Amino acid sequence: MKIGAMLSDVTYSLFRKPITQQYPKTRQEAPARLRGYLEWNPEKCTGCGICAMDCPANAIEMIVIDKKEKQFVLRYHVDRCIFCAQCVHSCMHGCLKMRFDVWELATLDKEHFTALFGDEDDIEQVLAESA
Ligand code: SF4
Ligand code: SF4
After folding, report:
1. Distance between CA 106 and CA 101 in Å, rounded?
2. Is there a contact between 27 and 101 (Cβ–Cβ < 8 Å)?
3. What is the distance between the alpha carbons of residues 58 and 30, in angstroms, rounded to a whole number?
4. Closest by alpha carbon to 76, among 92, 65, 91, 87?
5. Using a 6 Å cutoff on CB, does residue 63 contact ligand 2?
6. pLDDT of the residue at 4
7. Tell me, what's the pLDDT at 21?
8. Atom 4 of ligand 1, residue of closest alpha carbon
9. Which residues line ligand 1 (CB under 6 A)?
10. What is the model's pTM?
11. Which residues of 12-49 are buried (b: 16+ CB within 10 A; e: fewer)?
12. How far is the CA of 30 from the centre of ligand 1 (A)?
């Protein structure tokens, strides 16, 4: 590189505004296609378990309490999830999506890495059975 070109690059870098963002003080909105935290809408769920079967990271457990009564609990292991969205594509009923606005998932508490989705009573039943 010629010395003139180098000096011009140095001068440009010295006086331009910093590109670095002061995260977490400033937060940019995440792009809509970002794959963040999993969300489950149980309305059309049949409890088929295909999402869990197709998950390459074993991050989903579909717990069927009563299929007829549509009592399902989805256990999501956030720490295993590789955010591939395979489960979203596999669900034929569109029950799953990956939130673009929930992506700051770091935590000091390991408990936060496991989430239970479903009806409160059903979740309680699952927790009682696994205690
Ligand atoms: S995004 Fe991928 S790794 Fe995460 S739960 Fe869905 S299928 Fe599993
Ligand atoms: S694939 Fe869809 S319908 Fe089947 S258990 Fe998973 S979320 Fe429910």
Report:
1. 14
2. no
3. 26
4. 87
5. no
6. 86
7. 86
8. 81
9. 38, 55, 57, 59-60, 81-87
10. 0.85
11. eeeeeeeeeeeeeeeeeeeeeeebbbbebebeebebbe
12. 19
d(CA 2, CA 17): 25
Tally Cβ neighbours within 10 Å of residue 74: 23
| Among candidate residues 39, 33, 121, 24, the one with its CA nearest the CA of residue 72 | 121
48 touches ligand 2 (CB under 6 Å)? yes
Map tokens 């935590």 to a residue.
Answer: 107
Residue 40's pLDDT is what?
A: 97
User: Is domain 29-130 classified as CATH 3.40.50.360?
Assistant: no
d(C-alpha 86, C-alpha 80), whole Å? 14
Distance between CA atoms of residues 12 and 89, nearest Å = 46
Low-confidence ranges of the chain (pLDDT < 70): 1
User: Residue 1's pLDDT is what?
Assistant: 66
- The structural domains of the chain, with segments of one domain joined by +, span 29-130
- Which of 70, 75, 34, 30 minimizes the C-alpha distance to 55? 75
Pair of tokens at residue 120 = 């409160």
